[in-house]
Write a structure and sequence with these properties.
By secondary structure, the protein is mainly alpha-helical. The chain folds into 2 domains: about 75-365 and about 435-640, Amino acid/polyamine transporter I; about 365-435, no CATH class. The protein is about 60% helix and about 5% strand. It is built from 27 helices and 10 strands. The chain has helices at about 20-25, 65-80, 80-85, 85-95, 100-125, 130-135, 140-170, 195-200, 200-210, 225-245, 245-275, 280-285, 295-310, 315-320, 330-380, 400-415, 420, 430, 440-450, 455-490, 495-510, 515-525, 530-560, 565-595, 615-630, 630-640, 715-720, and strands spanning about 5-10, 15-20, 40-45, 185, 190-195, 600-605, 610-615, 655-660, 660-665, 690-695.
């Protein structure tokens, strides 16, 4: 028994429920009964325990093995596929280097403050998203449930992308790569190139026909694609095994899954810089178009990218930080992880455009060679005079500059006849301006570029293994955003819940591995997360700043961190961030309304994509995804507002003594007295020591000792702790 244990004697039945007032009123007359049995109050300072009804042992909340493991987990969650295939596209589309300034400003205004907010509430309350927002405001407890729903929707299709990456990874151990050349078709008389491939390209054909075997519309299911079904099953098995023990298992994997992508990106950058044309790609990427900064669309897309890049609203950030010590400097973590995310996006952009610059250079050389042959034919036929060709140009060794000079001369001389010659200018910028993102970048453009690399299978293996690791890092955080809140709230076994969650997600995810599955991925990506997450984060900001109180929250942070955060955060949380988020929400709704809901369907005859609108049932699914994701917020609000569920026992007005333990009911913490760090004065709280184990001790224990509040008996001790949070009991 610890030295600081307080021993008090009182006779209690095995199961007796009495109010605190009754205990106090009978305290003086119960001295005789103290000799028959004893209660031990074990004060465990600086030790956080979870009291679970009916359990004999209080298990401590899991904790990170080291600060590095925690940082890698947050980095792995925030740095995902979007950094590689979304940020470079936005940077190119919105003014090149000029786009970085709006992005950086919005990172400071929206990103870091809101990231810091989620880290701090998760770390202090030490619960998942459901428990955190129930604690801060029970009426807004639906925020946590909405986060879980969005996480589940995103996990459904995000793991499909990991499955695609696994498929390409498995196919990369070949020389030449299977997407290097168009396949040949043989018939009775002769052999010819596959027409669909000839009209597009080898990598495009392989993606749509060999990998996805895509149907022509979302209404045409086409049955399951067995190759992708196996890959999806493998992806869910990996996620399940990694998450089954919580952070004890996933935390160790983070060392590889979070660091390996950086090794690959640096290797790709070094290799690409040694290839012809890479500098052209980087120069094109970062050439600023300052006039683009004045367009509202640029700022809207930058804000959306900041928002989603950090994983705000998913609950993963809160879940990971809930396993920290309460005195951890989460402000430092917020700034560090945010800037690591930003510089990772810059690194990925350098790599992507260095590689695309090399690809553009290869394609440009082919273009020049083809058009040069046409010019030579036209000269021999007499359509173009040999005299207009500069004498220093040797057709056997023509540089890009020489070709452009000849092209400009022919264009001036043959001004009227020039369109009929069908000559191409072969500008490398034209190829670089073909903006691609998402799967088009990863599985088509980048894949095509790697076929021109020396030792292309090695680089293909490295690239797709990097994509798998980037995806898994984000998946771990997404699944943690589902598992942790449910385990904290409903006290189910984490292993069982993880298996059930992964199995259910795989079964539902079979819709994404149909031949039409790619169209459902697009649907979920466009409608299941964007608006619901924005609403969730706006409500988070409102809950902390206006419902809980920004002044009280700042005091909580001061007590928790040991220093007062800069007043900058006060003004961001109270004024700037809510306004910016509301503006972003309105802009997103307007943009969604102006953009016709639809998808790009692959047309086999034309070997190209064409836009198609969703059918009526597809529109119903789109709307249902948004409604279902945000529905928990009004449902929980109405239930709590109208008292449809009785939680009157949640104020510790009564306690149950069972086998010598105090078993509590859920707390009602809606009042203004709730405080994240409970910074009350000694006069307000008689028992400042949190985390007490109360259990029965057998007779014959040491003699009576005085309770911390100067009274004998546990009744008064419990009466003075009505506002104690669940996390502190």
């Amino acid at each position: 028994m610890p030295k600081n244990s307080k021993v008090v004697k009182r006779e209690l039945d095995d199961e007796v429920i009495e109010s605190v007032k009754d205990l106090l009123s009978n305290e003086d007359s119960a001295d005789d009964a103290f000799k028959k049995s004893e209660l031990i109050v074990d004060v465990q300072e600086e030790k956080d325990t979870d009291v679970e009804e009916g359990s004999e042992v209080e298990d401590e909340r899991p904790a990170w093995n080291s600060k590095l493991q925690y940082i890698l987990a947050q980095v792995g969650f925030s740095v995902g596929l979007g950094n590689v295939w979304r940020f470079p596209y936005l940077c190119q589309k919105n003014g090149g280097g000029a786009y970085l300034l709006p992005y950086l400003i919005l990172l400071l205004v929206i990103g870091i403050p809101l990231f810091f907010l989620e880290l701090s509430v998760g770390q202090r309350i030490r619960r998942g998203s459901i428990g955190v927002w129930n604690y801060i405001s029970p009426k807004l407890g639906g925020i946590g449930f909405a986060s879980c729903v969005v996480c589940f929707f995103v996990a459904l299709y995000y793991n499909v992308i990991i499955g695609w990456s696994l498929f390409y990874f498995s196919q990369s151990f070949q020389q030449p790569l299977p997407w290097d050349q168009c396949p040949l078709v043989k018939n009775a008389s002769h052999t010819f190139v596959e027409p669909e491939c000839e009209k597009s390209s080898a990598t495009t054909y392989y993606w749509y026909r060999e990998a996805l075997n895509i149907s022509s519309s979302i209404s045409e299911s086409g049955g399951l694609n067995w190759k992708m079904t196996v890959c999806l099953l493998a992806a869910w098995v990996v996620v399940c095994l990694a998450m089954i023990k919580g952070i004890q298992s996933s935390g160790k994997i983070m060392y590889f899954s979070s660091l390996f992508p950086y090794v690959v990106l640096i290797c790709f950058l070094i290799r690409a810089l040694l290839l012809n044309g890479s500098i052209d790609g980087i120069r094109h990427m970062f050439t600023p178009e300052l006039e683009m900064m004045l367009e509202p669309k640029v700022w809207r897309e930058a804000a959306a990218q900041v928002f989603f890049a950090l994983g705000l609203g998913f609950g993963g950030v809160i879940a990971f930080s809930s396993y920290n010590k309460r005195d951890n400097n989460c402000h430092f973590d917020a700034v560090l992880v945010s800037f690591i995310n930003f510089f990772t996006s810059i690194l990925a952009t350098l790599v992507v455009f260095a590689v695309l610059g090399f690809k553009a250079n290869v394609i440009n050389e082919k273009c020049i060679a083809e058009n040069l042959e046409m010019i030579i034919k036209l000269v021999k036929m007499g359509n173009i005079s040999q005299d207009i060709i500069p004498h220093h140009i040797n057709f056997s060794a023509v540089t890009a500059e020489d070709y452009h000079l000849v092209y400009d001369i022919i264009q001036k001389v043959k001004e009227e006849e020039f369109p009929a010659l069908h000559l191409n200018s072969c500008q490398i910028e034209d190829e670089l301006n073909k903006a691609v993102q998402g799967t088009g970048l990863a599985f088509i453009a980048f894949t095509e570029a790697m076929t021109h690399f020396p030792a292309s299978p090695f680089w293909s293996v490295m690239f797709f293994l990097m994509l798998v690791n980037l995806g898994l890092g984000s998946m771990f955080g997404t699944i943690e955003g589902i598992i942790t809140p449910i385990v904290d709230t409903f006290k189910v076994r984490k292993e069982v819940l993880t298996v059930i969650c992964c199995l259910l997600a795989f079964c539902i995810g079979l819709m994404f591995v149909q031949r039409s599955g790619n169209y459902f991925v697009t649907m979920f990506d466009d409608y299941s997360a964007t608006l619901p997450l924005l609403i969730v984060v706006i409500l988070e900001n409102i809950a902390v700043s206006f419902v809980y109180g920004i002044d009280k929250f700042m005091e909580d942070l001061k007590d928790m961190l040991g220093f007062a955060p800069n007043r900058y955060y006060y003004y961001m949380w109270k004024y700037i961030s809510p306004l910016m988020l509301l503006s972003l929400l309105i802009a997103s709704i307007v943009n969604m309304g102006l953009s016709p809901p639809g998808y790009n369907a692959w047309t086999e005859d034309k070997a190209s994509e064409e836009f198609q609108s969703y059918p009526t049932w597809g529109m119903v699914v789109c709307i249902s995804l948004m409604v279902l994701a945000i529905l928990p917020v009004p449902i929980v609000f109405i239930i709590r507002r109208c008292n449809l569920i009785d939680d009157s026992s949640g104020n510790l007005a009564s306690v149950t003594y069972k086998r010598g333990r105090v078993l509590k009911e859920p707390l009602n913490l809606e009042g203004d007295d709730a405080s994240l760090i409970h910074g009350k004065t000694s006069s307000q709280m008689s028992s400042p020591n949190f985390g007490k184990n109360i259990y029965r001790k057998q007779s014959g224990s040491p003699t009576l000792d005085t309770a911390p509040n100067g009274r004998y008996g546990i009744g008064y001790l419990m009466a003075d702790m009505p506002d104690m949070p669940e996390s502190d009991l």
